[in-house]
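B., you asked whether I could sanity-check this one before it goes into the benchmark set. Here's the sequence:
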Amino acid sequence: MKEVKTYKTLNGPKGLPYLGNMFQIDVSRLHLQIESWEKEFGDVFKIKLAGIKLIVISNPELIQKILKLRPKEFQRASKLNRIIREQGIHGLFNAEHGDWEKHRSIITKGLDVKHQIQFFPELKEITERLYHKWEKDAREGNEVDLQQDFLRFTVDVTTSIAFGIKMNTIEEEGGVIQDHLEKVFPMIFKRINEPIPFHKIFKTKKDKDFEKSLNEIHIFIDEIIKKGKARIAQNPALRENPSNVLEAILVAAETIDGFGDEEVKGNLLILLMAGEDTTAHTLAWSIVELIQNPSAIKTLQSEVDAVLKEDILFQEYEHHNQLKYTEAIANETMRLKPVAPIVLNEPTETIEVDGYLFEKGHRLVIQTRIGAKSETYFTNAEQFNPERWIAASRCPMHNTDAFMPFGAGPRFCPGRNLAMLEMKMVLSMLFRNFNVEMVADNNPIEEILAFTMLSTPYRVKLTKR
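And here's what the prediction gave me:
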């Protein structure tokens, strides 16, 4: 009989009595510390934080099995759920069990291909605004903060397709909702990882700024809900055929038991924050990778020139299917720089999976990037090689089970197709029209974990092609 491995029998870094590994962890580099420890202790090991037992998992096969057992046998970490709900957020991201099924059925309908095609003219308009900003920057020789531009672009897209609200944060100078959004995820992540909730004892300036920004976001969402209800009242046919996620959620709140004002607001907050952060940071990382790989830029430019021809961006929704290499760049970026490299889960009851016993109360720290950068699953795994995603040129080792930027199992991200569409739209427009040069800086670009994994700031200069 095969021996079952328990928390007690697992290896892990030595720590202090009671405090465990608390003072060995830098939260902003947690994913990198796990990668370092994995080399020493293997793809399943333990750490301890002041009495809290954590099991770190980076084995892709085991991760896939755990994620496929959600939401019944495993769920998001209860502390994560509690911290998020304390901010007035309850929606698809942190809902569990039957609650989650209700949320997902509503959200996926508003993000399906039918709504993306319907929304495509608006996506073109938003992308054209971004083009005109960059054209002006190129003409004037400005240094460009692409990270901020990508964040504003994704805010404009999310508010349009999900809420039916036209915004133009790309061209606004300040005081936009995006300025408040960028303060939310880092603080939530900090509070999730605090062993002691110091913010409940003493509020720092960052705590006060966070609460002020969160309040502004709540006011913003309340106004969106008000406008959505007014549209439905004026056009009752929207109850049968909602035109966006907001309307679908509002109709559900009228008809589905247990889906009320809290769920409406929570889902809108999640859509706004998650839709902005993840896609924007992936785009930012793609630029970092491409600038270090000029041959990939040449191949990308050849593709976008052939598909877009004389146009500044692709004109028909179906054109995105022709951008195979552009999509490969997005996939390769997400393999090397996943914006969600860590997922926090816990078992709902004591359960054995693949010879490991996970007890109720254990917290699982799932690290998805280690497998994606392993030679076991991808040939020349450390190299940026978009060709590995082109079917005709697949590398000998190419195991997509180790590639989980959008999660896996039943809780696979419902916004995947929209995110890919946005990334292909922006990358094809940028490299069809501009050359991109990194502004010299003595500081290397580093990874920072703040709920999502973002890069340290960088700037570029654009010139017209």
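One thing to flag: The chain has one domain: 22-464. Otherwise nothing jumped out at me.
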